[in-house]
Design a protein that fits this description.
- With 131 residues, this protein is mainly alpha-helical.
- It folds into 2 domains: 65 residues, Arc Repressor Mutant, subunit A (Orthogonal Bundle), CATH 1.10.10.10; 49 residues, Diphtheria Toxin Repressor, domain 2, CATH 1.10.60.
- It has 6 helices and 2 strands.
- A two-stranded antiparallel sheet has the order 1-2.
- A hairpin with a 3-residue loop joins strand 1 and strand 2.
- Helix 4 packs across helix 5 and helix 4 packs across helix 6.
Length: 131
């Protein structure tokens, strides 16, 4: 991972990534709806993310992730996928619940734990492909 960010920043970057992927840009109104906050919160957050070099804001057009912001968003998504896999494949938790849990806790899991989860899942996959 490139730099440490808060759970809140990870969450925003992931949301922007998803909207940007679908529509080319993330607009304030879409972010308000996605995160369930008022537009002033989005405006202030986007200013902070731009100041930190994680997004580029185009007035009246929306925001796009910078390369660093994109890397952080992709890493957050990877963590959530690994946690979802752990919960479904190893703990046999129903997929919808596993996704919800992974979404809620994924931001708080240290990189060292994510690495261990990845190792455990690779080991499981290797074991199942041997037969």
């Amino acid at each position: 991972m490139t730099r440490k960010v808060t759970a809140s920043v990870e969450r925003y970057l992931k949301g922007i990534y998803i909207l940007q992927k679908k529509k080319g840009v993330a607009r304030t109104s879409e972010l308000v709806k996605l995160f369930g906050v008022v537009s002033g919160t989005i405006t202030n957050t986007m200013k902070r993310l731009e100041r930190d070099g994680l997004v580029a804001h185009q007035p009246y057009r929306g925001v796009k992730l910078t390369e660093e912001g994109r890397k952080i968003a992709l890493y957050a998504m990877r963590k959530h996928r690994l946690l979802s896999r752990l919960l479904t494949e190893i703990l046999h938790i129903e997929q919808t619940l596993a996704y919800e849990v992974a979404f809620n806790i994924g931001y708080y899991i240290p990189d060292s734990v994510i690495e261990k989860i990845e190792e455990a899942l690779e080991t499981k996959q290797d074991a199942t492909t041997c037969f």
